[in-house]
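Allow me, if you will, to draw on your knowledge of protein folds for a short while. I have a record of one protein: its chain in single-letter code and its fold written as discrete structure tokens. I should value your view on which stretches of the chain appear to form regular backbone elements. Thank you for your consideration; the sequence and its tokens are set out here:
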Amino acid sequence: MATVQISSSISEADPKDRPVVIVGQVRNLKKVSWDSVQGKLSPRVSAETFNQAVSSLHPSPTDSCSLWLKNATLAALPREASRHNTPSRAHALTKLVRSCVSGCSEECILVVCEKSDVFASACAVSRAFPHFSRKSSASQRRKIVVEFLVIDGVKEKTISESEAKCLQAAADAVRLTAKIVDTPCNDMNTDDFLNEIKTVGSQVGITPVIIRGEELKELGFGGIYGVGQAAEHPPALAVLSHKPAGATQTVAWVGKGIVYDTGGLSIKGKTAMPGMKRDCGGAAAVLGAFYAAVHQGFQDNLHAVFCLAENAVGPRATRPDDIHKLYSGRTVEINNTDAEGRLVLGDGVAYASKDLQADIIVDVATLTGAQGISVGKYHAAILSNNEQWEQACVTAGQKSGDLVHPLPYCPELHFSEFNSAVADSKNSVADRNNAQSSCAGLFIGSHLGFDWPGVWLHVDMAAPAHVGERATGYGVALLLALFGRASETALLQAVSPLGPVQDQQGDGVGGNAHKKRKLV
């Protein structure tokens, strides 16, 4: 198991004792002076060897060159990034770092990049070192030190101590999220997830509100209760609330936390069910992002709402044809018990609106298999009732490395897919060939109402939640960047859709404290 430490300085060590990977785009590597890296490579590598190695790099799409055995490696990121990619080349960076490290007990990753790519790069490197493992062989404890050489014009500089602390919080949050998603349900049931929420709460001085089991039914949370009623460990709605002085508005992040999804009585097949431990990815992302956001000084009211359940099979399981009344008051005829995420999130967003009085609601979920078909494996699909926030989310995705792409928002054309003769709606579409991911998001939005005056953003991240058999911690960097303007930290403000704060008086603070803080 590895620990990842973000450093604000450029350390010196013989690569024989501490291996090093120097990674960046070729155009940035060419600007690195020998003096900046000599302490990491001497006496094993000369200035001439380093400069020749830089000149020899021809990434297609990536490239690497051994400077000294496996202990000193120079690696190049892709030259090009298209308009729907992230300029940081975050996905390539994770793969490149993973392939170039030597596996020693302590190693250094030196990332050479522009200032605008520092945040995304730190999150990308952290993804290369998963936290969770249950291998019986004794695993070596490793220490990964991540350092940055920032190219500013023709000059090179390091990051500040405050920036390193911000990046450390983000990296820890990404790895926490990935750990939860990687952990199987026998170790991460609803009880265990609640313990993770309590742990994060204790770290930031917040006690969660928890509604569980039969109390959910009594209070009208028919979606969460109906999905989780057959499981050994009862379902729950949990809320972490951060309410700072001077807040100008209320934000709610609502996460889908299905700790395992068998599909219920509409049961998944033997090849579709493995991997369904990852169906809590949205709630895990919200937890990680909440920790980092509060740790770095979130200036508005922020609520993290966790909709936790195990979609199990048993005598008490919800049946197709059952009708549940959700917290919004809307009734839902169940025609597919494997369309459960939208049911728990319907309760979650309604609670955020009715009880928390949220102005901005973002729900995050591994919602549909169709998401990957719609926008691919690297982008999440987003749906919003607000065009400005839709575009801002795309920008935040490019700045953070957690890419997104919009889905059609058109309830007047698509929501009729849920028509029911006996309830307000069904929970699954009539025609699976008609904008399936958009429709699934619209179901969630319907429990706010399509005329709801606030901002609603839906993030379906089913595909980018994992690469192969490993979780990515997707969603943490996206939320931190999207709401960067609400942070006290300059680095998060800089990666926000609006960029760094230039005029505090015009930002809903200081003399205009009564105004809502402008986020996008």
In short: The chain has a mean pLDDT of 96.
